[in-house]
Write a structure and sequence with these properties.
about 190 residues, mainly alpha, two-stranded antiparallel ribbon, 10 helices, globular
């Protein structure tokens, strides 16, 4: 089928560009074409950014991928953040959960994402702060970014393609992300 061939070519191009294994998506296509095409329609979910600063938006995505403990997915969102111009120092600070090293906007997004992932009651307070600082469209953007960055690792793990997060390369530096169980209980800065 032509659409399947196009999908495989796009997956191969994505793998080449990012060094990211799309085996889980190829399996999904092989296992169930209808499931694959429904999943493919969700791809734009993680690309919506409205009203929120770029670094803050990427911080939420990194926190989301870290929460699912998927090394390749964390590496992918890190690479995409860097490709989008987020400074390496900011990316490293998010991976290390060093909110004190972040600007106020990125720190807020990082704390908000951590609280949501941890189901911490502080998420409601931080939600209000996000809306007050950036507006409702930014909250929607952060919610979708966080959800999408967690969805892909979950699908990968469910299909048997999950890999634990050990180290992530940021530029020329290898960073060991702070485990999310520690990050989730860290006090907001």
């Amino acid at each position: 089928m032509l659409l399947d061939w196009i999908a495989r070519r796009q997956m191969a191009a994505f793998e080449k560009k990012y060094g990211y294994d799309m085996g889980y998506a190829r399996d999904l296509l092989r296992f169930s074409k209808p499931a694959f095409w429904k999943f493919a329609r969700l791809m734009p979910l993680g690309q919506h950014r409205e009203g929120v600063p770029k670094a803050a938006w990427h911080a939420a995505k990194i926190v989301g991928a870290r929460s699912e403990d998927c090394g390749p997915c964390v590496q992918l969102v890190v690479d995409m953040a860097r490709e989008d111009g987020v400074p390496d120092a900011v990316v490293r600070a998010v991976l290390r959960d060093d909110v004190a090293a972040l600007d106020a906007d990125t720190a807020l997004a990082c704390r908000y994402a951590r609280a949501v992932v941890a189901r911490d009651a502080q998420a409601l307070v931080l939600r209000d702060e996000v809306v007050q600082r950036f507006g409702p469209p930014a909250l929607a953007s952060l919610a979708l970014a966080l959800t999408a960055s967690r969805m892909f690792p979950m699908v990968k793990a469910a299909l048997g393609h999950g890999h634990a997060c050990l180290r992530v390369k940021v530029g020329n530096e290898v960073v060991a992300p702070v485990p999310m169980q520690n990050a989730a209980h860290a006090r907001p800065a």
